[in-house]
């Protein structure tokens, strides 16, 4: 909004020209989202307490989690509010990709909210049924997939890391691929959010990494130099990514161990859905498996655990899945598991960035 209000004044007052620059608006989107979280955080946590929106802890989890009972949850509402407000303030509102990101972020947040609400109000111990939740997620992801497929400016080629000349064109299959990436990312982040700061840390690192991917993809000269797909208009996603990274840091201030608030499915599904969509829009789809490697490992640990449990009639590969619980039950203190996962996440982000040169 600020761009549309102030940049036109640069004809008279040249210093308003600064609002043309994506980098400046991305920096201030980051700071704005962070400040909103800092200002509203304490009030919001108190509000959740007063409304008795507290986490129910499953009996069959690690014993150390029982003390978390009643921790305010659905903190994802604060993240989404900060991101949407900051993006509307600092991004160009005539950019289609900004609106796609806002629709996906709020859409997945609504699905998560419904799940959280049903669970918290005791209306259903499992929240939304898995079938209904997945159906809503697929519907939203399909909307994005078809919208992009029908957009003449968007290619249905997939970028293969390390191989600049291999760009398979999936045709309408790209819609299926996009749905898989978006829904997969949403549920992977959801599974990972099982320790204080364990999801928001890597997610923030991922948004900061895709901030760079968006900037490079939207800049013709840089895209040509790096020989990555040029996506006209994708540069504006840098502002959204800045807002997400800022909100992530702001939420981490309260979600860090010992957490004062959990994000809830309203947050985890939304962050994951946004991350998956960013990977599609910036044409760095497969690279998300590296940048978001923590989320992949968490999900694969569950698939292997459940699969082997069924095949071996009750045997387990891990002490407990997802894998963060395995380390907890191995005697690692919760903060140690969390910070080590953050360190691995940073290493994966650096490796992913290096693939832009190793191709
Ligand atoms: C999402 N939710 C956390 C919180 C957060 C198939 C199976 C792997 C599914 C999986 C599952 O239920 N996943 C749901 C994970 C939950 O966190 C809430 O959920 C939101 C995210 N969706 O925002 O509101 C618990 O996680 C802890 N937590 C923190 N700090 C945070 O900042 O400590 C969350 C955020 C919270 C809190 O204790 O209550 C969760 O873990 O449920 N199931 C599991 O992950 C369970 N694993 C399991 O059943 N493993 C079996 C299967 C695979 C055969 C096995 O290994 O044998 C574990 N989770 C729990 N108890 N709570 C273990 C049992």
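Sequence proposed for the structure above (359 residues):
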């Amino acid at each position: 909004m600020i761009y549309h209000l102030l940049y036109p004044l640069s004809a008279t007052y040249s210093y308003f020209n600064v609002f043309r620059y994506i980098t400046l608006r991305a920096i201030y989107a980051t700071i704005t989202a962070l400040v909103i979280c800092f200002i509203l955080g304490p009030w919001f946590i108190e509000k959740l307490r007063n409304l008795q929106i507290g986490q129910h802890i499953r009996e069959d989890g690690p014993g150390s989690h029982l003390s978390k009972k009643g921790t305010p949850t659905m903190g994802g509402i604060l993240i989404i509010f900060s991101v949407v407000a900051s993006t509307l303030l600092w991004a160009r509102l005539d950019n289609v990709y900004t609106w796609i990101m806002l629709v996906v972020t709020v859409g997945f947040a609504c699905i998560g909210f419904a799940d959280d609400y049903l669970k918290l109000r005791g209306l259903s111990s499992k929240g939304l049924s898995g079938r209904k939740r997945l159906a809503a997620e697929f519907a939203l992801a399909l909307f994005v997939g078809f919208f992009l497929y029908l957009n003449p400016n968007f290619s249905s080629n997939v970028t293969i890391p390390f191989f600049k000349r291999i760009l398979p064109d999936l045709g309408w299959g790209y819609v299926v691929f996009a749905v898989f990436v978006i829904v997969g990312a949403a549920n992977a982040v959801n599974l990972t959010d099982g320790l204080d700061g364990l999801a928001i840390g890597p997610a923030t690192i991922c948004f900061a990494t895709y901030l760079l991917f968006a900037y490079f993809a939207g800049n013709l000269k840089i895209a040509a130099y790096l020989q990555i797909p040029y996506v006209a208009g994708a540069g504006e996603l840098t502002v959204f990514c800045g807002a997400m990274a800022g909100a992530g840091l702001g939420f981490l201030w309260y979600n860090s161990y010992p957490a004062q608030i959990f994000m809830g499915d309203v947050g985890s599904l939304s962050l994951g859905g946004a991350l998956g969509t960013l990977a599609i829009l910036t044409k760095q789809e497969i690279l998300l498996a590296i940048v978001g490697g923590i989320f992949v490992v968490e999900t694969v640990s569950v698939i292997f655990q459940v699969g082997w449990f069924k095949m071996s009639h009750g045997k387990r590969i891990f002490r407990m899945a997802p894998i963060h619980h395995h380390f907890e039950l191995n005697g690692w203190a919760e903060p140690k598991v969390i910070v080590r996962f953050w360190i691995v996440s940073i290493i994966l982000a650096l490796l992913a960035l290096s693939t832009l040169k190793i191709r």
